[in-house]
Amino acid sequence: MNKPRYDVGHLCMLIGLVGFTLWYLSDAIRVSFTVPNLLLIMPVAIAILMLALAELLMSWRGGKLFEAVDDEPVREILPIILLFAVYVLSLPWLGFDLGTILFVAIFLRMKKETNWYWVIGYSVGFGLAIALFFALMLPYPMPMTFLPID
Amino acid sequence: MIDVAASISALSMLMTSLTPWLIVIPGIIIGLIFGATPGLQISMAMAIFLPMTLYMDFLQAMLFLTAIFTGGSFGSGIPAILMNIPGTSSAIATAFDGYPMAKKGKHNEALGIALASSVFGVLVGYLILFMMIQPISLMVLKLGPSEMFMVILWGMTLIASLRGEYVLKGLIAGLVGLLIGTIGFNEIGMARGTLGSFYLFDGIPVIPAMMGMFAASELFRIANKQFIVENKASRKVELRKIGQGCKMAFQSPLVMLRGCLMGVFVGAVPGVGSSVSNLLSYVETKRRDPDPDSFGKGNPKGIVASESANSTSEAGSMATLLALGIPGGGATAVMLAAFAMHNITGGPQFIREQTDIVYAIIFANFAQVFFLMILGLLFIPLLANIIKVPMRYLIPTVLVLAVMGSFGLTGNFVGPFTVLAFAVIGWLMRRYGYSVPAAVIGILLGAMAEKTLLHTYQISGGDISYLLERPVTLAIIGLLLLSLFGRHLLALMRFSMHKMSAAKN
Questions:
Q1: Residue A66 within any structural domain of the chain
Q2: Backbone CA torsion sign across B462, B463, B469, B471
Q3: A79 with A126, same domain?
Q4: Which residues of A touch B395 (CB under 8 A)?
Q5: Do A129 and A86 reside in the same domain of the chain?
Q6: Do A24 and B222 touch (CB under 8 A)?
Q7: Residue B420: which of A54, A85, A131 has the nearest Cβ?
Q8: B145 vs chain A: nearest CA distance in angstroms?
Q9: How many domains, chain A?
Q10: Domain span at A132
Q11: CA-based nearest residue to A79, from B227, B395, B434, B437
Q12: Interface predicted TM-score of the whole assembly (ipTM), two decimals
């Protein structure tokens, strides 16, 4: 499909995994440099570093270091991820009812739903119903804009 | 072998109240829907509906989740047959002959074969579980922390090595998951990787992480699609022909029984489960058949082999979960989370002390078989319609459910934030070929792995020769090495034999 010719994502991912492993190992060592504390973490971290190095070398030799396995178009997926991130991060301010209505409506518009009745009807209907359902089910208050919190 | 008193107690638990049964039917329907919708996994359904089990007692929660599992195991075969798209990895082999049958206009018969094989598989699987659960638990009692640790590692290795060409990536994913699973306080009271946040003292919230990695990341991946399947013609269904297909399934009793046995034993191996059992059963049936060339072209035996094995695997993975407290795959990993939510630890002690509950779960699954048969027949036409739901409606609906469910689990925004973070991580992992199930199993088992290793260290006093006195540990190490290097070893042996025979000639 739209597989990019040169994708640095795999390399970045490997660097990210190695970076996390090194940071976590150093944090564990900082807490306590004792066998019981590092019994699992140290060997696992070393194994990850060795495997990551092997993966790096093998991918490089096989010419696959700059390739994605999945060929789904990133340009169409990234806005969805961004929208989902904004939805989740804005929930404490927007509340579950308004946040969900906006998220569903924007999602439908992004995916080219042209029928405004459907866009408004489904986002408002589903957003309010699901927020109300969880608000009634959960024993603690959920942030809301329209619906009652308790 | 069978505890009669516990059996009677289990039956009375199930018979005296209607409540447990009220959640079985919705559970099977949810499983059917998620299984039948490509891209929606059974484990995803269980993870999304897991928060609802907070309001159920343990038995009800398990019945609900096993009902989803049972429904999903058949549901996944529907799109595999109709559209050549396995609903889940456990129905891959179903598509090999199911779709060619559908292309020949025999999709109704193929659906009937799949339904009958699934129903029979679940029945046989739980029958074996009922008879073997006590011996398994007694055997497991003899396992110490070193054996448990090796089983955890072996299970993870098996999952990681499932995608043959990406073994290294699978291992990296599993091991990183293992590290993430150890974040927070350990057994000796030391907090690692918390960044000073008290929200992380208890570790990463596992279920929201699982929701993000399994559900949300997969939805991102398929977000560009308008519909999962565009072809309407392949969705027409006739009940009469499905009934004929059910009869056809029993014309290959040996294939069905072999599939069941392979399913239950392969399913019991941690980390393998139905994803592998359906393929193994298919390959073995094809190998033994007098006409192997007919496979892949619409041989009904191919569907029987695959569906009987994948549905029986449920009971096999339940055996591991109940007897060892170790999940066999994604679905049982969610069940393990349900165990934790109800403050229950699976394992020999649980089986010994709560035999009646274990039996009640098994008995309820016998009944689920009949519900599956009826609901399967009723829902096949409807499920085809669900595949017509545009992705633009399906995706936000499921994402919202995941976010609200995770808030319900943690009681604060750590849940939704975890879903978001692990959804992105999961999407990146899928994109670059890193095994998501391996990472999830790693996160789930990280703390347990560290605990069992620490106990082994304390018992042995740090003396490595202790392992030499543990034959089971050594055997599992052998299996672990075999699963990692077996393929290479076999290739090497074949190569040297070929060389030797060439030299002789």
A1: no
A2: positive
A3: yes
A4: 80, 107
A5: yes
A6: no
A7: A85
A8: 14
A9: 2
A10: 74-137
A11: B395
A12: 0.93
